[in-house]
Amino acid sequence: MFTGSMVALVTPLDEVGEVDYASLKSLVEYHIAAGTDAIVAVGTTGESATLTVEEHVKVVLKTVDFAQGRIPIIAGTGANATHEAITFSKLFSGTGVAACLTVTPYYNKPTQEGLYQHFKAISEATDLPQILYNVPGRTSVDMLPETVARLSKLDNIIGIKDATGDLSRVEKTRELCGKDFLQFSGDDATGLEFVARGGHGVISVTANIAAPDMATMFQLALKGDLDEAKAIDAKLMPLHKHLFVESNPIPVKWAAQQLGLIQHGTLRLPLTPLSKEAEPVVLQALKDAKLLPSLATA
């Protein structure tokens, strides 16, 4: 069962925008050493929308290869076309991928019945465990707990990443789906409270650059040591907030480059580099989180 601090991993790109596999390998080693509980490769933070299908598959498989079984790898397989999401899920079958994370279809705004049929079709096409991903702020569609409950009855749909920030959904989803249905926060700023209410962990942007603190915080939280966990969370709160000062993953890739975790903060258009106005905001957040000493050794 997946629990704890899981990272929504950035996809490092070189100065001309090609995938930087050397930096990817370094990131995997960083997370293993830090105690991260799982890696999500090529989720939306990994710029899945702008990688080609070939790149998408290669990055996931390289991540599995680099991990060598030391940490579970969850593949991002979401798409707004059901057939495309099914294709990704099938491509990762038997590759060592531990599960798939599948975002709700974006732009086309399906009904609740459309969401159910979309995820049901994916579930029936693969034996890989499926984690639903609800992030209405990015997709313009909100998968309601009642729809999640219907989907939870399908054998290989094992959990949900909830990035609504609505903490009342933890109890509602548990009531409708049962305590064994996994619930992960997709909102770093409320992630600790999410777990305190009964969630199983977080799939985090902050963990890209503060992996040791995030791993420790959620280990403490899952043991019930909330006071210690809250002290870490307070230190990281500027990151939780200001890593979204511009569209994710713009700020976190800039921060990861500043910390020497990746060689370049390159993004694929239509995303552009962090603005000069936002750089001091993210830099101050790094200072507040006491990550700045890493700059001297990067």
What would your notes on this structure say?
- The chain has 298 residues and is α/β, with parallel strands linked by helices.
- The chain has one domain: Aldolase class I (TIM Barrel, Alpha-Beta Barrel).
- The chain has helices at residues 21-34, 53-67, 82-91, 112-125, 136-139, 145-152, 168-177, 191-196, 211-223, 226-242, 250-258, 279-288, 293-297, and strands at residues 4-8, 38-41, 73-76, 99-103, 130-134, 157-162, 182-185, 201-204.
- It has an eight-stranded parallel beta barrel, surrounded by five helices.
- The chain starts with a strand and ends with a helix.
Short structural summary:
Pyruvate binds at residues 45, 203. By secondary structure, the protein is α/β, with parallel strands linked by helices.
Share in β-strands: 5-15%
The CATH topology is TIM Barrel
Strand element count: 8
Q: Which CATH-level-2 architecture? A: Alpha-Beta Barrel
Q: State Rg.
A: 18 Å
The secondary structure category is: alpha/beta
Give a quick set of tags describing it.
eight-stranded parallel β-barrel; lysine biosynthesis; EC 4.3.3.7; 45% helix; diaminopimelate biosynthesis; DapA; TIM Barrel; globular; lyase; disordered C terminus; alpha/beta; 298 residues
